[in-house]
Write a structure and sequence with these properties.
With 639 residues, the chain is of the alpha+beta class. It is 53% helix and 11% strand. The protein has 21 helices and 14 strands. A nine-stranded antiparallel beta sheet has the order 4-11-12-13-14-8-7-6-5, sandwiched between helices. The longest helix is centred in the middle third of the chain and has 39 residues. It is globular and about 80 Å long. It starts with a helix and ends with a strand.
């Protein structure tokens, strides 16, 4: 029997996430399979017990959560795969040495038992914990599999003692340290892709329920010394993780605010928050976000200069976000006497700004690539940076010299090649590539395109049209938009259809009928938060420091979040769970086309590491979309 606290902790850690062989894997007929020697580190052994996401909606949801986490995967290794297996009491998840991750069906059930508002966040933590082990190459525990490899997957008390007997305190301490690090890294990963780390320990303690499931005994009324030790260690882990969580989750608020300012088009403010978060938690996602903020600023200036006629060239669309009004406001006209000199001065100043922003963007994208050499989209962002700065030599070098040799052919690369050729004045070459892309779009793009399909399709049509406009082929350009309208209507894509119609008939986009501006907890941005009011009593509060200023985070039971500055002014307000609704009666779980039907065409539509966002400047509301459904919203002041 396991008697000492350290021994109980060891088994807990094994059960929490390290061993696959201690899971009771049963087939559909209920017969327990006896594995051959050390088979459990290969997915081949577990495949007969896996559950297809096509046959189980809860399993399909777990795969969606896993896919979201992989958006933040910062490793040069191939992304791992997830397999959900049938199992009885035992470990919830396991990292295999062949690069796969297992999740038990019962793990999903236990996460779901905490309620709809928490289940996906809990699943995200369990899976992110295992991804952290994969990333850290924590596969030292294979020796445990060899010790139980000839036994049935269901461990007996004798096998438990055998596992523990050969271990010393140094090994146990090392195991505890690795588990603590995986908790920390898992919390950071889930936060970076948009899950709420506060959900892990809010209300009922997740770790105690975890242990109760493993031992099949209640921690509240147990008489077994073995179970008591296990429960006490679960409580200790919960307390330790809570301390980690408060810091990680509080800092994650900075990344959330950065994302919100980016969606609002306030790039310097977004960068301020991204950089503050990145100082403590640097990652590919953070560096990429900072790089995109510089890239967006450079692109804004270039659009102004092209439309005003200050510089020459096609007014290309860069696939970072879908913008309903991509044509920037022309630069104000100068008087005839001053026009030439003013234009020359403006052009020099603005070109310097573009080069400055591009230099910074390139720096951050290269940092991101060093952290994660296999992240495909970062290479394309790097190529876009050079292209915006008219450095076509380097743009080609990234696409044709790095991206294609490393990842193979991709329609996303074709887009940048066509844009590069057009920038170089090789119009015939550019047209040929654009024609090839449109043929591919008509046949159907593969599922592996690096740039999101919607963005890629729009970019192909928009940029081909921009090239034809530059060549003064207006009728051919207009025909392209009719072609896109027909294509998107056939495919049922409302956003692309409305964007195409707006190009054919400018200013035809439907307007938001909603005149009431949205609020969260009866507050708007800029309001003074009624801290002394009963509204703010009995709620969770955390402090965060940003460049010497104390910000306060208020977490409401209904899923609302309010952030105030030192003057108690609301600088952030969002909703990430709950049964509430926003203006227009948009609710959590609504399909992604519901906001389009309610508010019309969004001002911007973008895909970020945390998910998809529909931004409505007219009412200062952004809707967060995950897996095709509404997952939250936030308030913002339009740029």
């Amino acid at each position: 029997m396991i008697k000492t606290p350290s021994q109980a902790l060891l088994f807990l850690c094994l059960a929490f996430g390290f061993t696959a062989s201690s899971s009771a894997a049963n087939g559909a007929n209920g017969i327990t399979v006896v594995p051959p020697e050390d088979p459990t580190q290969s997915i081949t052994y577990w495949k007969p017990f896996t559950i297809s996401p096509q046959n189980n909606s809860h399993v399909a949801n777990a795969h969606q959560v896993f896919s979201a986490l992989l958006r933040g995967w910062d490793n040069s290794r191939v992304e791992p795969n997830l397999y959900v297996v049938r199992s009885t009491a035992g470990p919830w998840a396991a990292s295999l040495s062949d690069g796969n991750i297992l999740l038990s069906q019962q793990a999903i059930e236990i996460c779901n038992s905490f309620g709809k508002d928490r289940s996906n966040h809990l699943l995200a933590f369990v899976l992110a914990h295992e991804l952290a082990h994969q990333r850290a190459d924590d596969l030292w525990h294979q020796k445990f599999f060899r010790m139980v490899g000839t036994q049935t997957p269901e461990l007996t008390a004798d096998i438990k003692r055998k596992i523990v007997s050969g271990l010393n305190s140094k090994t146990i301490n090392d195991l505890e340290r690795r588990e603590a690090q995986a908790d920390n890294d898992g919390l950071i990963l889930m936060s970076t892709v948009g899950y709420d780390p506060y959900k892990i320990i809010d209300k009922k303690d997740f770790f105690t329920a975890w242990v109760e499931n493993i031992w099949q005994a209640s921690c509240a009324n147990n008489k077994s010394s073995q179970n008591l030790s296990a429960c006490n260690n679960a409580k200790s882990r919960a307390l330790r993780t809570r301390a980690q969580l408060v810091n990680v989750a509080t800092q994650a608020t900075l990344f959330e605010l950065g994302t919100q300012f980016f969606v609002a088009g306030k790039y310097p403010e977004a960068r301020r928050y991204f950089q503050a978060y990145g100082r403590d938690y640097p990652s590919r996602a953070v560096h990429t976000s900072i790089g995109l903020s510089y890239l967006a600023q450079a692109l804004e200036i270039k659009r102004l200069l092209i439309i005003s006629g200050t510089i020459d060239g096609p007014n290309f669309f860069y696939p970072m976000m879908l913008d309903a009004t991509p044509h920037a406001t022309p630069v104000e006209e100068q008087s005839n006497s001053a026009k030439r000199g003013a234009e020359d001065t403006l052009m020099l100043e603005q070109k310097k700004k573009i080069s400055h922003y591009i230099e910074n963007a390139i720096n951050y994208f290269e940092k991101a690539i060093r952290l994660e050499p296999n992240h495909r989209k970062t290479y394309l962002y790097l190529a876009m940076s050079y292209l915006i700065d008219n450095n076509t030599f380097m743009a080609r070098g990234v696409v044709q010299g790095k991206f294609i040799p490393k990842f193979g052919h991709d329609t996303s690369a074709d887009l940048l090649i066509a844009m590069t050729s057009a920038t170089e004045g090789k119009n015939t070459e550019a047209q040929a590539v654009f024609d090839k892309m449109l043929q591919q779009i008509n046949k159907g793009l593969p599922s592996t395109t690096t740039i999101e399909k919607e963005l890629l399709i729009y970019s192909a049509f928009y940029n081909y049209s921009a090239l034809l406009d530059k060549m003064e082929l207006k009728s051919e350009s207009a025909a392209l938009w009719k072609r896109l309208a027909k294509h998107s209507k056939t495919k049922g894509n409302s956003i692309l259809f409305q964007l195409a119609v707006n190009q054919i008939q400018p200013h035809s986009l439907s307007k938001q009928d909603q005149i009431n501006h949205p609020v969260i907890q009866s507050l708007r941005l800029g309001d003074t938060a009624p801290i002394a009011n009963s509204l703010f009593k009995n709620i969770s509060k955390n402090e965060i420091w940003l460049e010497g200023e104390q910000l306060n985070i208020y977490r409401f039971d209904n899923g609302a979040r309010i952030v105030t500055n030192p003057d108690k002014k609301v600088i952030g307000a969002w909703q990430n769970s709950g049964k509430t609704s926003t203006v227009g009666n948009i609710r959590f779980g609504d399909m992604s086309d519901r906001p389009l039907k309610t508010f019309g065409m969004p001002s911007r539509h973008m895909q970020m590491v945390t998910g998809k966002y529909l931004a409505y400047d007219a009412i200062g509301l952004a809707i967060h979309i995950v897996s095709g459904k509404v997952a939250g919203w936030f308030l913002y002041d339009p740029a």
